[in-house]
């Protein structure tokens, strides 16, 4: 069998070691590759109309062309809002609302507005609850850059003056901000705030096929959490991003403030019981699937593509998970030794799912990996298999169909999903 | 349950009764009985029946049974006629070795005081007390400077003491001690593999084990759910022996916290809360040199451990009060060979009346001591509960791991059990390691001394400790240590140096405890 030819535009050891361990041959991105691990800029070039590049059947690449629909903060919010509205129009039981007008099952992102475009809507909302804290994030930036907290409208006005945002010229992505209700009651462990970084692999959006990596982790702040207004400027208290925390004097380079999701589960199950822990992790899976479904209509489902997303989730003190954002290029830089082992394994498992071991990439593959090739990934949702399941269920009985949301929710969770 | 009691004969019954009289439970029962008797419709002729009836009331009966059970578990090996000094340890050279070891520790503690120019204990000023009290839940944040502080001793130092022990009364023909390849050369009786097999029968392969068999998808529903239902019944019964029987096959994660309390006889009441608060206020009032050792230990171990760093502040809230707890001291004095260090109140040196135990708990922590507490943080989120569970575990088990004695549960016996098992069942491996100058115990000793905490993944430590509590025995530690050597045998047979062997056994976090124990206990 011909050796697989790979290209890679970043010098990351967890990537290179994986490719080398497989005996693959490195080629330039301009040459004929079978597998290209590229950063998002190069992806944009490849898929741009000017380049006129066409991928052939034996070429795989690690991003979808317009992954931005999911991974840019403002677009994700827009898509999820539209998804909910569409479901509501259809009269889907998923779009059920409670007496306050909130979605019962799809309320998994903090209330968010675009700035400057939704400024008036935001002000209206702000005046309803003047004592809440909001978090401002630039749409096009990552790693906690440009983020700040506000609890007064005057702070926002000052920001808009400083930024000299002209109302008459439409803002570019770099100047657009999202403002979200700040989760000021995060679940604290040992008095400290943390968020989850989970890895989700998507091999197809239509039908949706996604996998959840078991070895995600929690990122802890080094400083005790304090919701006090005076601490709003102390980013070591509020932001869990490793790139921010690393600058703190209390940063520990041995574990890097990272705690495995398995340990989180052990702790929650041990101190709060199995049912509560199960419910939390079910809800996390649930929100992940629906965030993907929300964009499955608008992401162009190129058969050459797969993508491994970094999901950022915050759990509040009622143990409700909130989706904060999705990263297209989760950091592959290892901060600690166990981090390196985990990320190496992540890439290895991704490759094993995308390219069945011993084969060359082929866009016509079934996209149903053998169980032994899943590694530490669990099937989160496979629409194709789920539909097959529903069909068989329908033959068995047609009763369970109209039993309301919970029923619908349960019926999806067959062998084709995480449960 | 009652049969247990009769098994020990009359003498023991008297002993149990004596001990009961000092318990709070006794006073409670007495009071209820008196109330009963004082009722107006009470007839003297019915005395016996009505008192018996009262005792048979379900709740009361259970508490009484638990109290007796616990007493028997801890005091099973004692004979009342033996004088207290002899009780410390019947073998005098072991007892003497322990005493001289304690002297050595105290000496190095004193020299640290002199070197750093700090007192053993110091009263905090009012302002300091206030500050400290505000910091109570965040003690890890801005501690004092610990760079000068070093742990008084580490497992390595203690191992030296353990291996230097030899029996002065024994002379062998070939001057070679016993026919043992290991470094423990004292005549102790250890269990054989067959005896262990019988003792740990419930862990055998044909029995389903929580923490292992429930992880397979197919068993999830039929096994795991059944176990949880049964476990809930056991918890509802409130009986300690039942909890032990159940946990022999493992507890599930969500029931573990309750089951452990049940096995250890812990029910937090107002008195316990008050007592913990008192210990806490003792911490606030006085600063001990020991505190710095505890801080330093947490900083060196748990703070750097990716399983436990999030619990750093809980550890101080447990360890600092622990060092002030005289219940621990009493237990050490009564049940161990330890003779805790004593010191004099300043300016009163030599006056017997002013002699105090130092620290009040009698426990001088070694490097890694915090790891006895860390895994428990996965079970209890309230510091008070955490405190009492840890204290009980320490008083029942952990103190044996850093005190010299001939107790079959003590570190000497466990070390030798490890060596003899390895020599008997992995002779080839032992011989190879010995020939490349790498005594297995030199690697395994720290595992035993810390009960594997900090070496295994956190969930596995809990699974292992389940069995310690359920079987009321630390011998499982030696069995696991042997199993790990067996498991890594192929690689160990290739090593030529001590550091290479250490490297092979450096990372144990990927190991699954149960299959390993089963492998070495039941598969040969």
Automatic annotation (TrEMBL), chain A:
Cellular-component GO terms for this entry: ciliary basal body; microtubule
Localization, per the record, is:
Cytoplasm, Cytoskeleton, Cilium basal body
Keyword annotations of the record: ATP-binding, Cell projection, Cilium, Cytoplasm, Cytoskeleton, Ligase, Microtubule, Nucleotide-binding
Q: What is its main location?
A: cytoplasm
Which SUPFAM superfamilies does the entry link to? Glutathione synthetase ATP-binding domain-like
* Classification via InterPro entries: TTL/TTLL_fam
Q: Which reaction does it catalyse?
A: (L-glutamyl)(n)-gamma-L-glutamyl-L-glutamyl-[protein] + L-glutamate + ATP = (L-glutamyl)(n+1)-gamma-L-glutamyl-L-glutamyl-[protein] + ADP + phosphate + H(+)
Task: Name one molecular function that GO assigns to this entry.
Answer: tubulin binding
User: Which family is it part of?
Assistant: Belongs to the tubulin polyglutamylase family.
Listed under subunit, the entry gives: Part of the neuronal tubulin polyglutamylase complex which contains TPGS1, TPGS2, TTLL1, LRRC49 and NICN1. Interacts with PCM1, CSTPP1 and LRRC49.
Q: This protein is called what?
A: Polyglutamylase complex subunit TTLL1
- The record lists the organism as Patella caerulea
TrEMBL record, chain B:
Ranges for domain Rab-GAP TBC: 250-472
Q: Which residues form the signal peptide?
A: none
Cited InterPro entries:
Rab-GAP-TBC_dom, Rab-GAP_TBC_sf, TBC1D19
Name of this protein:
Rab-GAP TBC domain-containing protein
Recorded source organism is Patella caerulea (Rayed Mediterranean limpet)
For this protein's source organism, the top of the classification is:
Eukaryota, Metazoa, Spiralia, Lophotrochozoa, Mollusca
């Amino acid at each position: 069998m011909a050796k697989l030819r790979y290209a890679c535009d970043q010098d990351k050891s967890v990537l290179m070691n994986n490719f080398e361990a497989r005996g693959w041959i490195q080629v330039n991105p301009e040459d004929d590759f079978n597998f290209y691990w590229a950063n998002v800029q190069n992806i944009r070039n490849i898929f741009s109309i000017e380049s006129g590049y066409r991928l052939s059947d034996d070429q795989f690449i690690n991003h979808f062309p317009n992954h931005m629909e999911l991974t840019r903060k403002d677009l994700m919010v827009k898509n999820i809002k539209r998804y909910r509205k569409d479901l509501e129009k259809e009269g889907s039981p998923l779009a059920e609302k409670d007496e306050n007008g909130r979605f019962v099952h799809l309320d998994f992102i903090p209330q968010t507005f675009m700035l400057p475009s939704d400024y008036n809507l935001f002000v209206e909302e702000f005046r309803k609850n003047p004592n809440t804290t909001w978090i401002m994030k630039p749409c096009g930036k990552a790693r906690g850059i440009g983020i700040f907290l506000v609890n007064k409208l005057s702070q926002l006005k000052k920001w808009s003056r400083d930024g000299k945002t002209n109302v008459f010229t439409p803002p570019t992505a770099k100047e657009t901000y999202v403002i979200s209700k700040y989760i000021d009651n995060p679940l604290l462990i040992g008095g400290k705030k943390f968020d989850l970084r989970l890895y989700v692999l998507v091999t197809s959006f239509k039908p949706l096929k996604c996998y959840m990596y078991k070895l995600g982790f929690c990122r802890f702040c080094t400083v005790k959490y304090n919701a006090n207004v005076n601490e709003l400027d102390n980013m070591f208290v509020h932001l869990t991003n490793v790139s921010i925390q690393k600058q703190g004097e209390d940063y520990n380079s041995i574990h890097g403030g990272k705690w495995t999701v398995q340990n989180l589960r052990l702790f929650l199950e041990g101190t709060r019981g199995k049912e509560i822990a199960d419910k939390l992790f079910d809800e996390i899976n649930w929100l992940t699937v629906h965030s993907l479904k929300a964009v499955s209509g608008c992401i162009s489902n190129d058969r050459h593509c797969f993508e491994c997303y970094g999901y950022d989730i915050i759990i509040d003190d009622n143990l409700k998970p909130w989706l904060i954002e999705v990263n297209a290029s989760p950091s592959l830089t290892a901060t600690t030794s166990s981090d390196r082992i985990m990320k190496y394994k992540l890439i290895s498992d991704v490759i094993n799912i995308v390219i069945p071991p011993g084969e060359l990439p082929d866009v016509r593959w079934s996209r149903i990996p053998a169980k032994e090739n899943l590694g530490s990934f669990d099937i989160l949702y496979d629409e194709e298999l789920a539909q097959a399941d529903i069909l068989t269920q329908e033959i068995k009985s047609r009763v369970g169909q109209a039993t309301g949301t919970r029923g619908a929710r349960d019926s999806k969770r067959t062998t084709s999903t995480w449960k | 349950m009652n049969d247990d009691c009769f098994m020990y004969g009359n003498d023991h019954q008297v002993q149990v009764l004596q001990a009961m009289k000092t318990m709070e439970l006794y006073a409670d029962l007495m009071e209820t009985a008196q109330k009963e008797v004082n009722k107006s419709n009470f007839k003297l002729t019915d005395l016996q029946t009505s008192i018996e009836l009262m005792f048979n009331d379900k709740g009361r009966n259970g508490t009484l049974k638990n109290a007796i059970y616990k007493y028997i578990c801890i005091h099973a090996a004692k004979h009342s006629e033996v004088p207290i000094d002899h009780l410390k340890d019947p073998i005098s050279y072991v007892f003497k070795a322990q005493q001289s070891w304690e002297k050595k520790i105290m000496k190095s503690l004193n020299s640290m005081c002199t070197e750093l120019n700090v007192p053993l204990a110091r009263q905090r000023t009012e302002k300091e007390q206030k500050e400290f009290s505000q910091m109570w839940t965040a003690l890890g944040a801005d501690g004092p400077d610990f760079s000068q502080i070093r742990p008084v001793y580490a497992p390595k130092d203690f191992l030296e003491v353990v291996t230097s022990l030899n029996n002065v009364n024994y002379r062998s023909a070939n001057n070679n001690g016993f026919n043992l390849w290991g470094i423990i050369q004292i005549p102790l009786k250890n269990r054989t593999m067959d005896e262990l097999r019988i003792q740990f029968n419930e862990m055998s392969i044909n029995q389903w084990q929580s923490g292992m068999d429930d992880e397979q998808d197919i068993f999830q529903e039929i096994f795991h759910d059944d176990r949880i239902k049964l476990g809930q019944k056991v918890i509802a019964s409130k009986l300690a022996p039942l909890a032990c029987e159940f946990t022999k096959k493992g507890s599930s994660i969500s029931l573990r916290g309750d089951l452990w309390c049940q096995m250890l006889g812990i029910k937090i009441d107002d008195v316990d809360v008050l007592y913990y608060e008192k210990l806490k206020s003792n911490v606030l009032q006085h600063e001990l040199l020991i505190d710095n050792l505890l801080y330093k230990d947490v900083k060196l171990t748990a703070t750097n451990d990716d399983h436990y760093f999030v619990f750093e502040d809980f550890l101080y809230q447990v360890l600092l009060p622990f060092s002030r707890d005289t219940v621990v001291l009493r237990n050490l004095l009564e049940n161990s060979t330890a003779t805790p260090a004593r010191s004099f109140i300043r300016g009163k040196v030599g006056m017997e009346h002013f002699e105090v135990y130092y620290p009040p708990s009698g426990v001088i922590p070694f490097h890694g001591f915090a790891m006895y507490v860390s895994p428990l943080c996965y079970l209890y989120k309230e510091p008070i509960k955490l405190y009492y569970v840890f204290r009980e575990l320490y008083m029942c088990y952990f103190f044996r791991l850093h005190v010299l004695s001939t107790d079959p549960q003590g570190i000497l016996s466990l070390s030798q059990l490890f060596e003899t098992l390895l020599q008997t069942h992995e002779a080839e491996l032992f011989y190879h390691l010995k020939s490349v100058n790498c005594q297995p115990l030199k690697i395994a000793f720290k595992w035993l001394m810390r009960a594997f905490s900090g070496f295994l993944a956190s969930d596995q430590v809990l699974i292992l400790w389940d069995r310690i509590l359920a079987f009321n025995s630390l011998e499982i530690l030696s069995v696991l240590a042997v199993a790990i050597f067996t498991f890594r045998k192929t690689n160990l047979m290739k090593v030529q140096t001590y550091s290479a062997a250490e490297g092979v056994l450096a990372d144990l976090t990927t190991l699954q405890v149960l299959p390993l124990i089963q492998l070495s206990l039941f598969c040969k």
